[in-house]
Amino acid sequence: MSVKTLTIDGRPVTGRAGETIFNVAWDNGIRIPRLCHVGGLTDVGACRLCLVEIEGQNRLAAACLTPVEEGMVVRTQTDRLREHRRLLVELLLAERNHVCSVCVMNGACELQDLAAELGVDHVRLRYLHPKLEVDTSHERFGMDHNRCVLCTRCVRVCDEVEGAHTKDVAGRGTLSRIIHDLDQPWGESDTCTGCGKCVHVCPTGALFTKGKSVMEMIKDRRFLKYIVTARERRQWILQEEK
Fold first, then answer.
1. 106: buried, middle or exposed (CB in 10 Å: 19+, 13-18, 0-12)?
2. Is pTM beyond 0.85 here?
3. Is residue 240 part of a domain?
4. 40-87 pLDDT, tens per residue?
5. CA 113-115-116 angle, 5° bins
6. For residue 21, what is the DSSP state?
7. What pLDDT sits at residue 197?
8. Cα 183 to Cα 209: distance, rounded to the nearest angstrom
9. C-alpha span between 132 and 213 (Å, rounded)
């Protein structure tokens, strides 16, 4: 596989052909903000927070979906990008009811961290304040649609890793929401295995474990790297053959 040499934020870096700007940047210690990306899952470019500037192109490009090219010059931190990301975070905060002070993920929320990093201490937009349900029909987990940012991490991990595809997206625009099977309560799903993978990849408090109070929810995505690596290397099959 050929190697591509490019420049990211003034630093010469290399990446394999087919790798995305996002992965090459992070492998070289260059952090690009994101909400929908998580290692081990297919990228969809839903959050648009990883947009970067590429020299010679007027349009911003999603780093998680753009493959590296020889001689490419990429900028990930400019005034234009910071203002763009700030507006996106404000849009997310205004679209639904994100009240950090009473959230189980307060202090460990990726959206909250991004808001602090970008200096979003107030929202310049009109709040929609939708009245969305909290589905606690599942025996172990709950889903608060008020805190969902529609990153679809839960949909992808359920499909690509667990293989159940219990979750999906229904509706359009501001009416979009995560559903289970044929839009039934989570606890009535015939396909959910109760594995909890969706809960641990969720970047906010939208998916949570029951019994957790404010600031008590801790999410751990290390299982995802283990499962994906094991499948790629066929470790489980080799162990069984021994």
1. middle
2. yes
3. no
4. 999 999 999 999 999 999 999 999 999 999 999 999 999 999 999 999
5. 65
6. H
7. 97
8. 21
9. 20
How many folded domains does the chain comprise? 2
Residues 6+ apart with CB under 8 A from 83: none
Handedness of CA 161, 163, 164, 168 (dihedral sign): positive
Do residues 142 and 210 make contact, with C-beta atoms less than 8 angstroms apart? yes
- How far lies 150's CA from each of 13, 24, 79, 86, 228, in Å? 32, 25, 26, 18, 23
Query: What is the total residue count of the chain?
Result: 242
Judgement on whether residues 40 and 151 belong to the same structural domain of the protein:
no
State the virtual CA torsion across 128, 134, 135, 141 in degrees, nearest 10.
120
Inside any domain, residue 239: no
The runs of H, that is alpha helices, within 62-171 are: 79-95, 110-117, 153-157
Amino acid at 12: P
Identify residue 115 by its one-letter amino acid code.
Answer: A
163-167 long-range contacts (CB < 8 A, ≥24 apart) are: 164/191, 164/192, 164/193, 164/195, 165/191, 166/191, 166/192, 166/193, 167/198
Last-in-domain residue among 46, 77, 108: 77
Per the CB < 8 A criterion, the answer to whether 100 and 109 are in contact is yes
Regarding whether 204 and 98 lie in a shared domain, the answer is yes
Task: Answer whether 46's CB lies under 8 Å from 64's CB.
Answer: no
Is 203 within a domain? Answer: yes
Together in a domain, 89 and 152: yes
